[in-house]
Amino acid sequence: MNTNPVRKVLIVGGGTAGWMTAAALSKVLKGVEITLIESDQIATVGVGEATIPPINTFNQILGIDEADFMRSTKASFKLAIEFVDWTAPGSRYLHPFGGFGLDIEAIKFHQFWLKAQSQGSTQPLDDFNLSATAAKLGKFMLPSKDPGQVLSSLKYAFHFDAGLYARYLRDYAEKRGVIRREGKVVDVCLRGEDGFIASVTTDGGEVIEADLFIDCSGFRGLLIEQALDTGFEDWGHWLPNDRAVAMPCDTGGDGLTPYTRATADKAGWRWRIPLQHRTGNGYVYSSQHLSDEDAVARLRATLDGPARAEPNFIKFRAGRRKQIWVKNCVAIGLASGFLEPLESTSIHMIQAGITKLLALFPDKGFDPIEIAEYNRLTILQTELIRDFIILHFKANERPEPYWQRAREMAIPESLQRKIDLFAARGRLFQSDYDLFAEPSWIAVMLGQNIRPRNYDPLVDTLDETLVRGQMQRLAALVRQTADALPSHEAFIARYCAAPEFEKTR
Amino acid sequence: MTVPPLGRVAIIGGGVEAWMTAAGLARATGGQARIRVVETGPAATGALSTLPSLRAFHALLGLDETALMAATGATYKLGSRFSGWTPGLSFCDAFGEIGANLEGVGFHHYWTRLRQAGDVTPLDDYSLAAVIARLGRFSPPDPDPRSPLSTLAYGLHLDAALYVGVLRGLALKGGVAASAGEVAQVIRDSETGNITAVALTDGERVEAELFIDCTGPAARLIGDEPFEDWSALLPADRAVRITAEAPRDAPPLTEIEAVADGWRWRIPLRDRLDSGLTYRAGLTTDEAAVKAARAGLPGQGLGEPQFLSLRNGRRTRAMVGNCVAIGGAAGMVEAMDCADVHLIQSGVSRLIALFPRPGGAAVAAQEYNRLGAETIERVRDRAILHYRCAGRRDGPIWDLGREAPVPEKLAYRIAQFESRGRVVMYDEETFLEPSWIAAFIGHGVLPGRYDPLVDRMPVERIRATAERMRAIFRQTAERLPTHAEALP
To answer: Taking the complete model, does pTM exceed 0.90, yes or no?
Structure first.
């Protein structure tokens, strides 16, 4: 029996990070008192309204009912991100979930595609990915569990209202015994002997003690930075965007697309995230290159319909906390670091933080060994995601000074090596810790016009006619499968429609 | 003769690495490269003890395993048994899983919990593969995921010369040309440094676009490239091989036994036992080594002892210009973990994945070398771990090994496991997580603490679950055919 177990956990800050953490901990831990303190007076950021497929694992761990969760968060399905205007004006490409085609004789499928392209074929690689094909057609259905079916290759995530998601998880957590305290933390008390956090004091004068503190207080890092002076590693030289303005609007334009859209703009990019009852929009930009007024104006001009709210400005800095777990404090979510949500990684990074915390859950001894491992893994994973985000900016073809600068900037050596290798013959070798698997890198490299000079020479060893035939059959099968699916709207109406969904139609 | 689209490939060398490379490339290039093997250097001898990954290579080659096993006098391998490394400790590093995760927490944490409560059941009892192997039985994995047998994996014990024969036959059928020859001179382009031809002693010039150095430690082609020497990290530098009569009812295991002078291997083949001692020349004479190698062998062994020199280390770059080293020419780690064939295989697979078109390879070489260095260094770290943990004090080789510097990544890995049973996995690992757990715990590196989430379960329930698991494994194993019965 461990004689020194953590008995009390205090989560500082609600929002997506706080309530995801509370929900997961309340489900997995036993005999631990979990308290969350948040203030209704502090607005949550809620940038991450789009997710990626690993969130399904999180939902499974919690054991939540998907349709119920979607109805409650007014969610829609997501099959891809569409990138618009990142290269030539009017250019667009998809970064879909799931892989492309099927490898033949241990040769990667995209190599066959590259050869076909070199011979004049114009068939997009998307034709070999069901998520992409369904996304373009505005279709959706849950994947088949039978691996023999093409429909089993459909990979999906969600768009949801982050505020409602936090609310949903709050209900979940409170039902499992999490205690919610209303209040602002006004003071943090450190132990004299070792500098560990002993307690926090609220504006109501209440002192809350705990063994383990989880900092979900957002950018400012109330515990990890303000109390513990951890320090921040700034990535602004690679990712200069430091502002976002968000403004939801009525559903319109292309409607309830089963994909997120990220449109490059003068000094940043705009997101469009369709929900059941509205569309979320925002502009992520560099304040050095664009004024707040201009950003709002550019965002407003591109809305699908009437704005639903006044512009909401968010300030941030790209980078990470130098250490993410310090003494008895773990930072999760924006308190741990920030990468702009270009690839919808914000919620995933919260999830990854929680997963690691559970895998390395400490006792009151707080052995430096767990702390070292938590920090090592987080830094490794975050830097791989960072490289993937930087790729989008580096390989742009836009004329504005902001974009010229991005094109000319020096990038991390790890990323340069990947780009060079892909540019030569479309090859990629992955770290096991990379959240984005090979198909994601392929989609974005090609989408950003990094065209391999040549394909893998081993492709030529296979009978061209046979391979072409196989490719055609595969594309036809993908297309037939996608055609037979219901529309995204129809599926949502049947599966998980919130009351407002019906009203908007 | 015109040059084919994928160019001409000259493989220099005649051992396992040469023919694995030839067969692999013949398959991958599908007749679009002209592959030639210049058979040179010593022929393959002895036995190979392989990891389950080799089966994927055979599948890629389209090699029928049953036929292969019959042709090479092969036996099955469910893992390795380490004994003598620390007096009183022996353990299996068996393929497949150890116990089952309970509520998302690795089984070895529950094992540690029970151990701290006074339970002395060895970890091996929770490894189905180890239980089966120790009973001298065998089963391939069951395709039904509900069966405990579905978690199994196996490797093979192969006669090296016969294995080369099979690969050679396959390669020749795939269009590879072979002839014997001696390298007289390597001719390079004065500007690029690329090899243009290898001149043989009979006067022939073998020209090619890609040259593969499979000449072992002699490194006839790539020898000018610096070699990172690991003799300060790993003490052995010599081995002696002795063949013995085939033991009856040999379990499907490679035996790796430490003795005062070094470590001995025993690889059971159908018709004989391949065995030997790995030692350090400066500490043990050849004479003493032979004596130690013979001790305990059935009939003190057959035939003459064969001496092999070892050089732990790696070529700083295994791919330079149009020359690639595979096998001993690229690097070597003493093989108590039986990764030697896997290192060849990973070199061949990487070469296929990065196969250059005649003339260009600079970017590919950088990646080839980066991945290759990671791979062999993780294997090296594992060898160092064995010495580091060995509790023997009866021979100077053990003091050398124990006191050798520990590379940073290994030190971190040991510290993580020792403290709370955390298994750190890096990129390009050869050994899977259960294998690291088996090695740590087997060598007596016990976690000081276990995952606190274990305490969600009352200890009585953990004990009952563990007992049930053991009983199921034992019953499952007892129903299986013996190793000899299972051989094709």
So the answer is: yes
